[in-house]
Design brief:
The protein is α+β, with helices and mostly antiparallel strands. It is 55% helix and 14% strand. The protein has a nine-stranded mixed sheet with strand order 16-17-13-18-12-11-19-10-20. The longest helix has 45 residues, at 264-308. The chain is elongated, with a radius of gyration of 35 Å.
Amino acid sequence: MVRVVTPFLSLKSIIRRKQRNIAVILGVALGVTLVAGIQISVDSSLVGWDYFFTLGLGQIDATITPNFIPAFNKTVTKDILSTVSQLDIVSATAARFQVSVTVQTEKGTIEVGRPFIGYFSNETGFGDLFLENKSVIDLGKLKSNEVVLGFQLAESLDVKTGDTLYLSATFKNHSLTGIALQVVGILSDKQDTRNFEYYGNFMGTTIENLWNLFGVSQEYNQIVVKYTNNIDTADELKDAGETIESSLIKAHPYLEDIINVRNSRKETLDIVKTLADSLSTVEWVFGSLIIFAALLVTVNIQSMSFEEREKNTAIIRAFGGTKGQIARFFINESLGLGVIGAFIGLIGGIAYGRFLVLAFGYAFGFDASPIPIIITSNAITTALLSGLIISFITAVAPAINASKVKVAQVLRGLKEETSKKVTQRYFWIGIVLFVLGVLFVLSLKPNPILDGKNAFKDLADAESIYLPVLFLLVGPGLIISQKVSRKIGLNFVALGMLGWALFNIFIVFDWIESGSGGMFYLIYLLFSLVIGTVILIGSNLSTFADIMEMLTQHLKIFGKQTQSIIMVSLRHMAKEKRRSTLTFALFASVLTLNIFIATWSYSTRYGLGETISTLTADSDILVYSSTPLNKAINFPTLLKNAADFKNSIDDVVGALYSSGFGFLNQSFVSAYPASVVAVEKSDFFDSNGDWKFRIDLQDNKSEKFETGTYKNQDLTTEDKRVWEALFEDKPYNETAPYPIIITSPIYDFSSFPNFKLAKKPGDIVYLPLKNGSFQPFVIAAFSATNPFSQLAAVVPTGNGITISGGSTWFINEKYAENITLFNDMKDKENVFLVKTPFKVMDDKNKDLATNIEEYANGLNSTFRKQYGFHGIISVDIYSIFEVQLEGQYRFFQYIQLFTSLGFLMGILGLLVVSIRSVAERKREIGMLRAIGISSFGILITVVLELLFIAFIGFFLGLLNGSIMGYALLDVNTGGTGKFLIPLDIIGLYTILTMLSAIIAAVIPGYRAVKIPASEALRYIG
């Protein structure tokens, strides 16, 4: 009979227990909301980012540019256009000429170079250009001294139609300085951006005008291609790009070494997909702690639901219900609630997904409202399944406990004493886990037992060791729990998990030398810290309550009644140990995550002054000239001795810089972006051999030397050999006596974000010489500190594309004279480093950089009048880093908005505990009222209990999050980063946590104290 009606009883229980079940449904719904929200936000972002990214392309699908030559001539261009235009997949082509320029207005403002594009009069980027008055501009009608600007560029330059711009640029051997052009049109910011590329930062004229300015004719350095409308998917775009390249090489074999076909729209799709995948990974990793919190909430609710129905369960058992039937009853009930919660969670997930998309736009300063919300069948399926999984997982333990109820004992109203040991099966589980841990550890290659810290050098290896060691900790903990006592076993597991996590954080972090990613390693550590601290405090909660009671009794600031109220709250918290532990675990997990993100991102944003100084060899300002200056002018000395800078510039050095080329490997195939700095010994050392700008080399750890040209006592013998080979042309390697280069690390970004080193010291690379041959160079070392490493962030390449993530090379000026990268630039300099007496993050460096520009470029400046140079850019180095730091900081602000859902979990958990706690204490409340304690005093006991629970969670979150934030900052900066605690954010979390506890306590507590004492005393549960 009971077997037949079990599903019916489950359904009937759901209907009858509406108020109790709402809490279960909300717990499941919040978990599903997070799961569905992540999926929906990622799917929506994929579509939205694709839209925003492709705006800049207009209708351009591919571009063809020259490789290692300045431009195509007319014949080559005609061949390319003819071949490409005949392909069925191509609907339009066009040839262009463009150069990178620096811009100055009459107000003296310098703008970093923008591509200045020359168009044929009949080619408008496959779309129309609309001016502010909505008229369509005809570029063919522009005069030789006229230019049209995009609205964003015009706004940043603070110019309007009719103003004059002064442009400086270099193409081949031809340099332009201060060419005056009149702005005759500014594009509308309302036009359909899909019809034209780069409209915001557009700068254009006719191709004939640009040719005339540079004294060239019939030369092109960009060909743009539009595919037919049926080329749309990533695979179709990939095939189209390969078809263009193979068709060109087949028709014109000589093009193989000189063309570069960029499948622009395919690259954009790949970038968007990578960004969406990376965001998804980050959200799932950080969201896992919130899902963990949702599980804690629901388990807590389910456990209390069993406790409330303990007598009913015993009655069912007394009438013949089996253990299996009781377990299925609770699981069926939970699954029913899970279905309801899943549908509610799906609705919440849609709203949460929309919130995440808007939050991402808010964090990065753009309007994300045009991004549509994409709800796929996969998102719906995931949401519904996650609801069932959450409800099932959280019901299993309470269901098993319910099935084991002692019928006679419960019906007599007796409480079962908690066993000090766990059952025998936990002993065998512990044995299995321990054996598995041993086997896993022994099978690891490299092995931590045999290889010691060498087994941790790669991130993947360190990750693989983590879980087996946890097995070795949990297994013995279960054995101790069965053979000795539950408390000692739990403490062993807790201390083991904490010890292992801290060992990894403070020791293994420093051992890791290679690898990328690390998100799972991070989540292992976060979970270990949270679970370890929660178990440690939870298993010793009575001891904690005793200590708090002793402090309360010894502190004279509390009266007797207040002390009594505090002690009642502490006793009740300790009495319901499991419930209290599950509740403060909510806040511990959520706040660990939030405070880790807050401290790490804040410290990275504002605490890297010393790190940046180290990376840039103590240089503070970077000065770049689009037109190389003759060394005879001695610009560094002029700048240093200028009256305006005598007390604000310590030193200036100059070098020759070339940016944006793909270096060659042995088979002469274009590879990774790089920049080259040609240097002399005097660029880094003074006449006494002392450093002007100290540049260290990585991992050169041979014995010290005390004599030689380079006086610094902390150089190694290996360092000395490298510097002598670079500056004095001494052989670095007798077996391969090639000239050397020093580089920053050269990474392969093709599999971003899982990139790896593409080259290492000792490898050979090739650079093209002016005579048409190639010169091999040995990579002698990687530079650990490189003041030029961020140049690529501010200096665009010849085709207007800014290089980022490229490598910087140092090469001797002797060899630079013969390399095509430095055509006809002997005895010239175009990049300068300035050292100031100020800290790198000091705003005085920003002011000084502006003053240097005024000194070099001002319309009435002595330097400009005497030497005729114009277009010198000066930027404080911190500003270059600041752009990257701000971007990272904004991303983590978004992650903090993302994790805000966790506080709803905490509030729900506290509210449930409060309701249950008040219900259990009705009789106690009646007694307190009867002996004269006021309603307010009784309310305070409820509030204090939740405040204590919330405070424990907050303290653990603050401790764990700060440890993780400090450790990650320390390892990422080599100990040079300054750990900062954002007091405003921590204060906000403190207020939110304590306010949540107060609100959750006051609502049921206020209702309880309104019950008459006589009625409360009659309450029997």
